[in-house]
Amino acid sequence: MALCEVLNSFLFEYDTPRIVLIRSRKVGLVNRGCSSAFSWVFLWEKGYQETDSVVSSVTTKVKGVTLTNTSTLGARIWDVADYVIPPQGENTVFVMTNVILTLNQSQGHCPELPDDQTVCKVKSDCVPGYVSTHSSGIQTGECVPYNSSINTCQVLAWCPVEDDSHIPKPAFLREAENFTLLVKNNIWYRKFNFSKRNILPTINSTYLKNCIYDAQTDPFCPIFRLGKIVEAAGQDFQEMAVEGGVMALQINWDCNLDRAASHCVPKYSFRRLDNKDSAHTVSPGYNFRFAKYYRNRDGSESRTLIKAYGIRFDIIVFGKAGKFDVIPTMINIGSGLALFGVATVLCDIVVLYCMKKKYYYREKKYKYVEDHELGVGETYGTNS
Ligand SMILES: *[C@@H]1O[C@H](CO)[C@@H](O)[C@H](O)[C@H]1NC(C)=O
């Protein structure tokens, strides 16, 4: 009866006269707790509804043009085909905001970037065939001038090698803040055969041409200014544009299909997915490299190496729809009733078997009916 003792000490450490009150209050509390839990589950969590989770498809389109003017490139226009990489993706779109271009690379011999492994004074500092994960190429064993003051080991590589030690700041394509992203999202709730898209039936084409999403004034406009997405997540666009990052554009389609379909509308929210931790700034942001290849007149191959920094927008669609259905209603009422039953039984067990005054309660709970012993030979009624 160790369990009973524990229960006893927790619940009923009281003197005899008070126990009656306490007992009824405790039992009452448990019962009330059960019933309110049940009604909460049933009404708040819509226990009377069948639910389904969303199936969705997303397509995106970015718009915007910007002009840059640098000494190496001259005046240059950047349009969608230049800065959206790859041109189309699945639930995600990458917009290049900063770039390190290395023009006219070709295969050959050139000095490696200087760092503590590659700086050399004499030929014997360099090991032919040496290559590390940070190398631009394979060392030839020569020590050659990198610039007027430093010598580095020579490598066989795409030359000249990329120098990415200085990231352009402010970002090269800082105008990307004013680019727009159109998100088209179709959703489907299979169980209810309900489908809808985020360009609502109330939106006409003139509105769609001119609107920009705003949580207050235009909450259903599917066109987002990139700067606003980042701002809404509490980040600074120009800061994020320098080294890149990952943003989530969340579309929530929680719908109560017991109401009219026009009440089922998307809710947009934004957050930054790559944690920007100001105390720990090792390897921040998001970047990758790719190249464009050319064949020269003389048949030799050259390429432009592009190290692209930018913001990846992941479009995350989630949602749950509910609609009245008899079966979950019955199941939930059933389990609710069972909960009541279990509560009563548990309370009774504690009171009748564990408490010090259990005999007293047993007596009170069950009214014992005294049997009138039937005498031998006595019968009920009369024989006929
Ligand atoms: C974006 O557009 C606004 C309004 O047209 C302009 O004031 C702002 O300078 C632009 N942003 C950048 C980075 O040029």
Automatic annotation (TrEMBL):
Topology with regard to the membrane?
A: Multi-pass membrane protein
Family note? Belongs to the P2X receptor family.
Keyword Hydrolase in annotation: no
Report the subcellular localization.
Cell membrane; Lysosome membrane; Membrane
For this record, an example GO cellular component is: lysosomal membrane
Species: Malurus cyaneus samueli
InterPro entries the UniProt entry points to? P2X4_purnocptor, P2X_extracellular_dom_sf, P2X_purnocptor, P2X_receptor
Query: Which residues hold ATP?
Result: K61, V62, K63, T180, N287, F288, R289, K307
Supply the name of the protein. P2X purinoceptor
